[in-house]
Structure formats: structure tokens, C-alpha cells
Structure prediction request, 453 residues.
Amino acid sequence: MRATYSFPPGFRWGTATASHQVEGGNTNNDWWAWEQQPSRIALGQSSGLACDWWGGRWKEDFDRAASGAQNAHRLSLEWSRIEPTPATWDESALGFYRELLRGARERGLVPMVTLNHFTLPIWLAERGGWTNEAIVGHFERFVRKAVAGLQDLVDTWVTINEPNLVAFLAHLTGVFPPGQHSLTATFNAIRNIVLAHAAAYHAIHEIQPQAQVGLAHHYRGLRPANPRSPLDRWIAHFREQIFNDAVAIAAHVGSLRLPGATQRVPKAARTQDFIGLNYYSTEQFGFNLLHPARALAVGTYPPGSDLSPSGFIANVPEGFWHALRWANGFGIPIIVTENGIEDADDSIRPRYLATHIRVLWRAVNFNWPVLGYYHWSLVDNFEWERGWTQRFGLWELDAVTQERRERPSARFYAEICRANGLSSDMVGHYAPEVLDDLFPPAGEAELTRLVKR
Prediction:
């Protein structure tokens, strides 16, 4: 059957990027220092020139986004450029972001700006970063400067990207700087992130009352490896509470609920005008009494999962439905701030995109207040501790020559954006293997009924 899953007028279709991953030459933050240390980044790689946005190549990439019918773009500011040393400001850096944001608007791309996307200025990292409560005041000062200088170009702000990942990967698993392995440091970081977000939220609304402000939450689908096992169900639920729920609930009701303690953070209550949702995949967890420490390790995917080339992401669109349902539970507008898959050959991305957009339509069709979707990412970029080994871009990047090459998924996404919907013709062309799942063929009785009509 030929059909189209249509989205409401004005729905925002965009892509997402982050400053350190695309700008290049960000030498004054903790991630650049981290990249210089042996064995921190896959294959000893470094961000280097990245996508050369600081050199001006954002212009051609924004041209590509606009020609692909996108009407929005999510990007981030690099704190270490704007405030290179404490309370000193680089006005030329702020001027760069003004030019970039103006360029986005001139191309019909409504900007959403993230104020902190993983990186910290070196001077702040050396003082303890997110584990030092002084960061709350430092972040508020930076936010006031940035918002005051850019408010005429931006009306939608994300304070902090994926606060749960920041806390867990930097302070528990140690794959982000500073590479700690401390549950206490992790919980301290979570608390300070909540306080910093709350301070930023109130500061933004003081400067720009009509602004829309939220967090970008990384929602990870979590399942028990054995649904019949009470221990497996318990560990999945435990991880759900501390990983998916803690920060989001704190920013909703002003209460930070962590194992063994509940802390009141009243300034954080009702500090989300929308909930930003980053969803990539769903994994499973089991609890082994002989190895209890593994309860907080990385999960696994069931045998037969539809995996990305490195096995890093499984295509689990039903997990996206659970993520959207979780977000809808907060009773505020939802923006999908990231969704995508690493796939250099573009072999799995088309069906990943098709199946997830179909789930997105289902949520919209349920009248859930989903306002937009930002695909990760516009162009291949530096993927943190995984370096250049994973390729998330709709556009392929040669990091040496800076050449961009269009992937089929870029054309697929452009058709979705242009039509403001997902059609059976698109899926049949780009992802025919999932056509019957997304647009089930009519049976003989249904065909007879349609012919008689």
C-alpha cells in the first residue's frame, strides 16, 4: 500500500553537532589535553582539525543542511574559547558564534544552542570540574555572558548535554576526563550538574524571559537479560533510576534521588520548558552474584541484534517508543535532540532512520507534544574516546583532505524533511528491507474491500 506518515506543520527537522567535535583546534579544554595522553582515544587519534568549522567550513555544511530541506540545527558553544581564563572574555570568539548563528538563520536553519557539551576549560578542569561545587557559579557566569551576547539570535537553549553521561563516563567508568572510578565522585558530579543547570535556567530567563530552556537527556533503553530473574529485573530497574531518571526528575520536582539518599534541590524544580531526548539504542543487563561490580558495567545486546558495524549500537526502534513515552511522562514539550547510528558504509542507517521516524510519527499521532527531531549528525565528526573510528554523519568526511561526500541517507533524510513525512515510496527506495514492516501490504480481503469502495 502506498501511504505517507505526515507530521504537523512547523515540525522542526534538523541535525545536531557539538563544538569540540566539529570546530577543530580546541586546544584550551580538558578534552584536548586528554587526547594528548597515550591510550585515551581509539587508535591514538585526536580531534585535530575536526571538520574545520573554526576555519569557516560550517558555511558549506550549513549549505548542505539547507539544501537538504532541514529547517533547524542544534550546535554548541565552546566554553574554553569564550572564557579562556577565569572571568576574562574573548569577544572575538563570541563574535564567531554570532556569525555562525546568523549564517544558520540566513539559510533557514533555526538554531538550538547547547551551552555545555562535554568539554570544560582547562582552568576549570584543574579545579575539579563537575566534582567541585564552585563550578555552579562559574557556569552561571559563563551562561550570562553567552546568552546576553547571543539572545537576539537564539531562543531555544540546552544548558547541559547528557548530564548522566558526563557524570558516569568521567567519574565512574573513566573513559572521559578526568578518568575517575569513584561512585562518590559520580554522585557529587550529578548533584553539581543539577545545581548548575538550575542556576543557568534562572539566569537565562532573567535575561531572556521568553526563551525555551531544557536539558538534553541521554535515555538508554535498559532491559533485564532474563526477564524471569528477580536479580536481572532489579539491576535493570536500579540502573534506570540512577542513569535515566535522577537528573530528569530533579529538574522536574526539585528532588535528587540517588541510592541511599534523597537531596532537596528546590531551585531545580520546574526548570525544563521542554525535555530534550537523546536516544540511540537499548541494551540488556544481568546480575552475577559472583561479580557484583559488573552491575554497573556496559550492557550487552541479545544474539541476532541488528548491529552497527562496530557493534556499538543496536537498531531497536521499540526502545525509542519507550524513550518517548518516558519523556511524555513529564508533561512538557519534547524535542528529540539526538538520534542516529554509526555506519561508514551507510548499510544500516537507512533502515534505522526509517524505523525510528515511523516510531516518532506514532508518538506525534498519539498527540504527544513532540516539536522536532535532530539527527546525529550532519557530517562525520570526532566521536570522543572512539575518535574517528565511528561515522555518524549523513555526509562522509575525509578528516585529512576535508572532502565531504554525500551518503544515500543524506538524500533519504532530505526527502523526509522536504515532505514533512515518511512515505512508502521513500522507504521502498532507501530501505526496502523494512517496507513491509512499516507499510504492511494489504491482504486479499482488504484488497477486495478497497476495490469495492
Q: What stands out?
A: The mean pLDDT is 95. The longest strand covers residues 212-224. The longest helix spans residues 183-207. DSSP finds 16 helices and 14 strands in the chain.
